[in-house]
């Protein structure tokens, strides 16, 4: 698996690995500097962890399953009729990374494990889904289980491919999805507020309960103003509570405009500018990727990757989830370990083994570029390119790290 060295004099293990990031959990657990010097680190919206997934969402028959198949090289049914997908399909997609490929080329390891993105293909959403229309509530709960959204927007005309709303209009479709997700969040929060209020009427409330009531009211206000939760202004204390709710409109979105192969190739589509404007007006800062299921399928059939948007979609999804990875690299194995951005060295070490975190002493970090420039670990060390980092070190994407940790029996007991 990973390389571990042992020294007899000191019960010290050394593990080779490459990159990481720190979690909000570790942020709250650190020693704080004096108040005057503190600039509060913003907690990210979303679940904490590296086992996160992206859901493919959109109205029926717009190319969701076709996109899932292209991304994951699977062949789930993607037929020309609405609600072809009912139960969600799950798969892992390799996250392309040239650094990983170079490390594999260099070490020619017995085992090579890249980073993965988990993707779920979800049934189509229709107008009224929040009240049970179409497949309604069941698959809104499938969206709830994901952490970010790839929203497929139909920008292709094809009289043979039925549109449940009668005709192609991606801006209308964007409105439908956005309304349904907001309505579902509103329903959830209204129920939550009722429960919180009835609990308060039954006895004295604590501070946390009061905060929850106040936050729920503010969340409802944001949604009623037609805004998604991820665009509200939230303090860290709010975000900690928000992250326990899994609200649909708190999840970041990448919009994918699925157009005909001809439109994609000539870079012209009558809907694209309107879709972009809708996103800029309603979801400022979120990205739109022009794309075509038909063009991508043709590229795949010809074995070409040049001009494909799939890599961009996968890596953007990975970043939407706030994920990064570090590598363990040696002749036995080159492996990318997925972590959340901001993860500190001990928690990143814990991804490899809990002992690594429990007995953490330090991380020796080498940058990928330095390893490539100097050619070997020994040469990197001689050039002073292995930096010793402590518990507060925030692992950077692409770091190559050597963990030192103590695994005496005493340390294990703690
Ligand atoms: N860019 C495109 N141009 C033309 N046809 C397309 C394009 N993208 C997808 N299609 C066709 O649209 C039909 C529906 O595709 P797909 O099953 O992937 O949609 P879906 O969104 O998963 O549908 P459902 O909601 O029913 O599960 C298929 O026949 C597919 O080949
Ligand atoms: Mg489908």
UniProtKB/TrEMBL annotation:
Location comes to: Cytoplasm
Q: Which GO terms describe its molecular function?
A: ATP binding; ATP hydrolysis activity; GTP binding; metal ion binding; ribosomal large subunit binding
Per UniProt, where does ATP bind? 61-66, 259
Domain OBG-type G intervals: 52-311
Which Gene3D superfamilies has this protein been placed in? 3.10.20.30, P-loop containing nucleotide triphosphate hydrolases, TGS-like domain
Q: How does it assemble?
A: Monomer.
Protein name, entry field: Obg-like ATPase 1
Can you list the GO cellular component terms from the UniProt entry? cytoplasm
Alphabetically sorted, this entry's keywords are: ATP-binding, Cytoplasm, Hydrolase, Magnesium, Metal-binding, Nucleotide-binding
What does this gene product do? Answer: Hydrolyzes ATP, and can also hydrolyze GTP with lower efficiency. Has lower affinity for GTP.
Cofactor(s) demanded: Mg(2+)
Keyword match Cytoplasm:
yes
